[in-house]
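Sat 14:20. Reprocessing the chain from the morning session after the first attempt stalled halfway. Input below, unchanged.
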Amino acid sequence: MSQTHPSNPLLRLFKPGKADARPVPATEEAVAESPYARYLQDRFNPAEARTLTPTSRDVFLLSADVQHVADTVGLFHAPKNLLLVRDPCKGETGRMLRLRMEPDSIPLFGNWRGYGKDGYACYNPARSLFSLWFQVDQARPDRRFSYGLPGRGWLPLTGDWDGDGKDGIGLYDPSTGYFFLRNSLSAGLPDYYFRLQQTPTRAIPLAGDWNGDGISGVGLYQPETGLFYLSDTLDAVVPAMQFSVEPRETDAIALAGDWNGTGSDRPALYLPRQSRFLLWLQTGQPHSDTAFRFSHKGLRGTPVSLRWAL
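Finished this time. Tokens:
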């Protein structure tokens, strides 16, 4: 486990703050260009949700009536706050749920309470504010708190960092390559902070339980080279796995999920121009095991990994 030291200047960024506090103005520091920089700008175009940001957690839909033990994929369409989900039995888009997402926010899904049914959340990057719902049918969030620095383009993650059966939150800073992960759903200091060695530029972060031990690790994906860097533990700065995949498209978005119900997460790619998902059942091989087009109407949105029935 990475130890937190009060003298570390990075930890000054994580002073506990009140929920709904006024946002801190962004500094003039240059942020390294990443695919998210373009997506976050496009996201707020009311005409079309072109922003594509990955999440890697499960969600429980009230209308689910079929038992599944594997994750599936979906798209969140921001203008209408609509989540469209692929039915793994029928192999087609068959479920939808209207979420109460806050404007200009990124959707997240997680098992916040450890009950086996997931809620959802949204992260506002301009305010660095997390809002969490424990039930999908509630009008107001159950918890809201600030974490990290506002207006820096930091990217949210969710995962079970300590193996207690409950998901925590995290942030990734594209400009430095640092991960800041926290077990508790509250403002405060990160429980883990580290930077993977050989951090690629323009990298996309993801999280998943790569070895099936019940503890989530993190990873990075570089669209230009098609390289994945995956870490099993949160105390090692050297990636445990490194491999390349095809195709290599600069706008590809990486995510992860337990696609075959084995208890281990595997990577996936979403190709926005084709509305196409590529899923890997094994790590280390260049070509995906499953590929399909999600929306024949060309609907774009935020790709998510989820389990819509428990």
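Residues 42 and 49 are 7 Å apart (CA to CA).
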